[in-house]
Amino acid sequence: MDSRVHAFLSVDKSSALDAARRWDARRADADALPPLAGLPVAIKDIICSQGLPTTCGSRILEGWRSPYDATVITRLREAGAIVIGKTNLDEFAMGSSTENSAFGPTRNPWDLARVPGGSSGGSAAAVSADMVPLALGTDTGGSVRLPAAFTGIVGLKPTYSRVSRYGLVAFASSLDQIGPLARTVADAALLLQVIAGRDPRDSTSADLPVPDYSASLPDGVKGMKIGIPREAIGAGLQREVNDAVLAAARVLEQAGASLIEVSLPTIEYAVPTYYILAPSEASANLARYDGVKYGLRVRTPDIHAMYARTRGEGFGTEVKRRIMLGTYALSAGFYEGFFLKAQQVRTLVRKDFTVAFGSVDLVLMPVAPTVAFKLGEKAHDPLQMYLTDIYTIPVNLAGLPGISVPCGSADGLPIGLQLIGKPFDEATVLRAAHTYEQSTEWHKARPQLT
Amino acid sequence: MSERTTAIAYEVVIGLEIHVQLLTDSKMFCECATAFGAPPNTQTCPVCLGLPGALPVINRKAVELGLRTAVALGCRVHGTSQFHRKNYYYPDLPKNYQITQYEYKIHPPLGTKGSLELTADTSPRRIGIRRVHLEEDTGKLVHVEQHGQILHSLIDFNRSGVPLMEVVTEPDLRSPEQARLFLGRLRSLLQAIGVSSGRMEEGSLRCDANVSLRRPGAELGIRTEVKNMNSLRSVERALAFEAQRQEQLLDRGQPVGQETRHWDERRGVTFSSRTKEEAQDYRYFPEPDLVPIAVGKQWIDEVRASLPELPDARRQRYASAYRLSPYDAGLVTSSMPLAIFFEATVGHYPQAKTVANWLAGDVAAYLNAEGLEIEETALTPNHLAELLRLVDAGTISIRTAKEILPEMLRTGASAEQLVADRGLAQISDTAAVGSVIDRIIAEHPGPASDFHGGKTQALTFLVGQVMKKTRGRANPELVNRLLREKLQS
Amino acid sequence: MSITPSIVNHVARLARLELSPEERERLVHELAAILDHLAKLNELSTTGVEPTSHVIPMTNVFRDDTVGRSLPREAVLEGAPERDGEFFKVPPIIETEPEP
Question: What is the pLDDT of residue A31?
């Protein structure tokens, strides 16, 4: 099946089978089993794991094996999960379609001519096509939520600092966050429960207790106030997406929530802000791929030429584009006008959300302006590709938790509903998403791969 | 002499940048050991190798040592400070950015605007401290050469991520000697507050200098940066050379080039490193993987309360309590181990002035010549006290004491043992000295009668002969007295 | 925003990226278009607005000064593109940098 979807870059069959047998034996013993005992989990190939390569979808790391496990991998193993394989992605998580992988694109299980969204397209497609029940993705500007929406599954980006980034290969450190992909909200909650919490190896991981996410799922939305930003509805949206999102809001209203119009006036500045900050951070984060310590080396008689040739050949077009953009934005004379300005606008975007959350518990909007587009459709227009993330990027800039749940379909392709919560209030996000999911049938629809 | 006249016409302006390896057990951002001399690439981990996905976590002790320095130097300690990334490509820098602190208005370094007082022979002088900040060290490159060409380079990342503190002075120093004195004072301060071992030879203290010349009162001239000075003495020598080199250029009407120059200790010259001097663009930005350091008043107060007596205070105390000259007090407090040695010796031998004279004199000369610190010699305070007591008791002469001191420094032998083993004790026995004198008078009848004739220099000759006969061991006072008595009788 | 080929060359040099003539040509146009879009931020006044470096306010996250385990040297050098015994090996540093 994966030969057509191409969700996986590597699969660990033998040790996965061993682990599955071990857990099955223990299940028979009726021991107290850990929460994910024997469950296979697919890992976006930008999270370091021992035993399998970690390529980041890049030639520059082809064949590299991490000598250490990311904290989330350690936690998964401790919870009994089986790290079944590594999934395809846009190179270094830079993209919205999974077309930017050096190892070929992943296809959308709903329509193989279409993209699964990105950059966690491999993880989303693997869950959507029933290859695995659970997967981890990463979300810097929408890379969990967008592919979840495009493939009709649930994807959660936790609050920035909720989940340790140790072992997540950095793209944009102040925005990156690991998140679960699953078929249901309850499964996503279970996976989040395992990976969330303080990690002494990540200075930016929050030292706050992790609530029991599953326990509060059935509590419903009675009395909950849900804000709908007037800037996010109407113009610029595919009509079916607009209708599906508004219909979803009414479902929540019928379940006892009240709908309130809110305003996020600066969200139109989120994309330009992001495309200064993320490439700037990336330009430094990706400087280490130089042919000296690991990965690709193009041999030359002199080290400066080695750097330039290795990086020129090892990185793909989009990665080079963003390194150029970020290097430019940080270079002498441009710092104040670009980087500092963008950091200031980031403050304004955060303030918009803070004001909105003064009167509501959740913000509701689309995940993407359209359903999944065709392979190659936006590949030659970077700006159009960037604008795919117009509704997800503001959430990363503000560091908030956001979820994508299936809420409709257009031309046989899934539509995603986005629910955004206050910092560290994943519980409310999950509860509302679960309530919505249980009131509808959208999550039961599955792609027909024949 | 034209050199003399131009020496008056120009003023030397020097600012120092000192890199200090902090006394921590583990690295700045990871748990690898900082121990010196481990086999290559055995003290590394995902963090200090810059492996994909690894993240830094700040070593609390390093911050505390930085704060101790900032407080001890009277710096303004900033409420919040933040690390930055300094971007440049070099094979010893695994991430191709260095995590450091940067003087940026929104995210200042740990401390700024401090000072340290310098007591040269002349008047006291306050040297401004521009900033104190923390950063990580790089790995070590070994160049493999053949016929003067580098074939390839080898990298050992053990040193990568070792905690460093950078102390930057204002361009307030006015001579190479002042630069040496300042660095000595700073080193003793850092030792006193437990921040640094101060061992320049091991690279735990590294000094770069900016040097320029100007006509007094004029604007600063073009400066060169001098690197690779790894002892106090080489700082003074290198800066003296560089100042003279610039002076000669200016005298010939040639411009001083803005460049980095390396000090060659053996040849005693600075030379241009011939690297292409292009404007570096380090693209600093706040390190997103590390949260800010917030230092409240309480933390600063705790640091201040925990500081020991600082060298300035110690020097003043010695000057008054032991009645030492400012020079001697400055010298015995120039390093923490030397001050401890001084106090311990005074505990055994209370004539502090004598102890200071010996430390400032023969001991200092030995240390200087050998390039050692007092704690690196085998001499103990107890043994030094014993030596001084032997002199006081007349058992040995000062000359003998000066002769055996280097051996005591080298081997740790006790003075009494050396005197006994070598029969160095003075002959103070009247009968023994008397019989030698009788023989000398008999052998030299001429000078004896000269003395009777009033030529007192004849006595000096005869004393010399007695000392020669006894190989210097006769007590000189006794020889003088007995000779007079015998000649006059 | 005018992006010239010489700006692209300079930035590529800073970033140590060797670009083909076609890549350079394309980047001149693409960067210009993207920077035009980014210039939208200038519509907003940000005078006096604090920049956000960290979205979740935290300070003083430290570790204790204790020595932990380092990686075994073989694990360190295993992935090295080239090694010489116990060292990483790299070509020499020739100080005149070639244009990328």
Answer: 67
Average pLDDT of every residue of chain C? 91
Domain that holds residue C9: 5-42
Taking the domains of chain B in order of start, what are their residue ranges? 11-301, 311-414, 430-488
Which residues of chain B are under the pLDDT cut of 70? Answer: 1-8, 105, 119-124, 274-279, 371
Global confidence as pTM: 0.87
* Residues with pLDDT less than 70, chain A: 1, 30-31, 450
Residue C38 CA: distances (Å) to CA of A270, A271, A339, C15: 10, 8, 11, 20
Determine the topology of domain B430-488 in CATH. Arc Repressor Mutant, subunit A (1.10.10)
For B245-276, the pLDDT digits (tens) are 999 998 888 888 888 899 998 899 998 875 55
Number of domains forming the structure of chain C: 1
Asked if residue C87 is part of any domain, the answer here is no
Residue A318's H or E segment, with its range, is helix A317-330
Q: How far is CA B126 from CA A203, A377, A436, B118, B183, in A?
A: 39, 69, 71, 6, 13
* Contact yes or no for C54 and B288 at CB 8 A: yes
Cross-chain residue pair B95–A67, CB shorter than 8 Å: no
> Which residues, listed in sequence order, are joined to residue B84 by a DSSP beta bridge?
B100, B286
- Residue C80 in any domain: the answer is no
Q: What is the pLDDT of residue B3?
A: 42
Assigned token pair, B471: 């190989």
Q: What is the pLDDT of residue A450?
A: 61
Interface predicted TM-score (ipTM) over 0.90: yes
B283 contacts on A by Cβ (under 8 Å): 283-284, 327, 330-332, 335
Residues C28-52 have a mean pLDDT of 94
Distance of CA B227 to the CA centre of its chain: 17
Contacts of B148 (CB under 8 A, 6+ apart): none
Bridge partners (DSSP) listed for residue B212: B13
The residue behind tokens 């106030």 is: A225
What residues in C contact A347, CB-CB < 8 Å? 49-52
Cβ neighbours of B82 in C, within 8 Å:
53
> What chain A residue is nearest to C48 in terms of C-alpha separation?
A344
Task: Flag whether C100 is in a domain.
Answer: no
Q: Nearest C-alpha of chain B: how many angstroms from A339?
A: 8
- Mean of pLDDT over chain A: 95
In a domain, C33, yes or no: yes
- Determine, for residues B91 and A303 on separate chains, whether the beta-carbon distance falls below 8 Å: yes
- Spatial distance between the Cα atoms of A175 and A141, rounded to a whole number of angstroms: 7
Contact across the interface for B97 and A290, Cβ inside 8 Å: no
Cross-chain Cβ contact A339/B285 below 8 Å = yes
- What phi, psi does A332 have (nearest 5°)? -50, 130
CA B5 to CA B137: how far, in whole Å? 44
The DSSP call for residue B444 is: -
Q: Which of the residues of A are catalytic?
A: 44, 119, 143
CATH for C10? 1.10.20.60
The pLDDT of residue B6: 44
List pLDDT tens digits, range B272-281: 875 554 568 9
How near does any CA of chain A get to the CA of B263, in Å? 26
Min distance A199 CA to chain B CA atoms (Å): 11
User: CB neighbours of B219 closer than 8 A, spacing ≥ 6?
Assistant: none
- Would you state the pLDDT for residue A198? 98
Which among C18, C56, C98 has the least Cβ separation from residue A206?
Answer: C56
Going from the C-alpha of A390 to that of each of A271, A274, A367, C12, the distances in angstroms are 6, 10, 8, 28
Instruction: Give B152 to chain A, closest Cα distance, Å.
Output: 9
Confidence class of residue C1 from pLDDT cuts 50, 70 and 90? low
Of B168, B206, B204, the closest CA to residue B75 belongs to: B168
- Looking at the domain that runs over A2-268+344-444, which CATH code has it been given? 3.90.1300.10
